[in-house]
Design goal:
Length: 353
């Protein structure tokens, strides 16, 4: 998602100065001998490609439009802002950890990396504020991100062997619907939009597969109404039929794609299930505890202010919790490092995150 002070959703998903171009080494150190991913994915990926929004972005969104480059973002890891939308690591980092890989290089920083690093790690094309279609933010859509990937393939950056040992992560979780809300879309018209979005997602992930990527991990939408922006710290609307429609249509479409190919090239990453489990149990037993899972760690002090905002004198216009590890949500939309660790411990169990 793109970012303005009047649209706190770019604290969203949704959605680069010199210091930002420096590689964040060891985002999460890869495990030495990962084996669990073979059970889930069916092979040992050597390269990871990421397409998505702010839940997956690791530094593509420009500093001039994104709060993710301002303090206190990044305070948990690596101790400074890196363009990630949270206090530390995001979904891309934890998936790379699970696969035993280093975090793939952000597309906008690829020129500052050695050629072998780009090939060995993969590329993250995700931008905060991005949607399947154009959103209110001026960032690449899903199709445009895939275009950038295809351009690299035309330049022979990746060989057929590289692609055959690669996994793609496709994470677009709501910015198309945010745009619809902002422009006063009706409930009656939303199902048609949902069908358009899901149809395009299916076309996009099939295109990624057809370009040679071996398998594609597709993220299901979390409960759209259960973020601090739209809920109280105590309760949220868990009966949102629109989110369920999106996920049901996407599940059905992915199953059909798998049946057509007579394989399991398209895998589902169920954020809805993970979020609802964490809300119900206030964390993950043995992993994390969130006494108020719907409460954000970093919030604006007044209406119109967001996490990271300051006045003309540099004074903070936001409140920051003492311990981000005890919060599931970082800001009004995004997840803490501990929150993502909890999500992955649920969806990819038996792995030490």
């Amino acid at each position: 998602m793109n970012i303005t002070k009047t649209t706190p959703w770019f604290l969203v998903l949704c959605l680069i100065l010199l210091s930002g171009y420096k590689s964040v080494r060891g985002s999460i150190s890869p495990s030495s001998e990962p084996t669990k991913e073979d059970l889930m994915i069916g092979f040992k990926p050597k390269t990871l490609f990421v397409f998505g929004d702010s839940y997956a972005d690791t530094g593509n969104t420009p500093v001039i439009i994104s709060p993710s480059w301002r303090f206190p973002y990044g305070i948990t890891f690596p101790g400074k802002p890196t363009g990630r939308f949270g206090d530390g690591r995001v979904s891309t980092d934890y998936l790379a950890k699970y696969l035993g890989l280093r975090t793939p290089i952000a597309y906008k920083r690829r020129r500052f990396a050695r050629a072998r690093q780009v090939v060995n790690k993969g590329i993250n094309f995700a931008f905060g504020g991005a949607g399947v279609f154009e959103t209110i933010f001026t960032v690449p859509t899903a199709s445009m991100q895939i275009n950038s990937f295809e351009l690299l393939l035309r330049k022979n950056v990746y060989s057929p062997a590289d692609l055959n040992s690669s996994l793609a992560f496709f994470s677009f979780v709501g910015n198309d619907y945010i745009k619809y809300n902002i422009f006063n879309g009706t409930s009656q018209g939303r199902p048609a939009l949902i069908r358009r979005v899901v149809k395009q997602i299916l076309l996009d992930v099939k295109r990624i597969k057809d370009l040679g990527v071996r398998k594609v991990f597709v993220v299901l939408s979390p409960p759209q109404d259960c973020v601090p922006l739209y809920s109280t710290s105590k309760v949220c609307n868990t009966s949102n039929t629109f989110t369920k429609l999106h996920n049901n249509l996407l599940r059905e479409g992915l199953r059909k794609l798998n049946d057509e190919n007579n394989d399991k090239s398209f895998l589902m990453f169920d954020l809805y299930k993970a979020f609802m489990t964490i809300f119900k149990y206030k964390g993950v037993p043995g992993v994390s505890t969130f006494s108020e899972p719907l409460k954000a760690c970093c919030v604006g002090r007044k209406g119109g202010n967001s996490c990271g905002d300051v006045d003309i004198h540099g004074r903070r216009l936001y409140s920051l919790c003492k311990d981000p590890k005890s919060f599931f949500f970082w800001d009004n939309v995004h997840i803490t490092d501990e929150g993502w660790r909890s999500v992955f411990s649920l969806l990819l169990p038996d792995t030490q995150f």
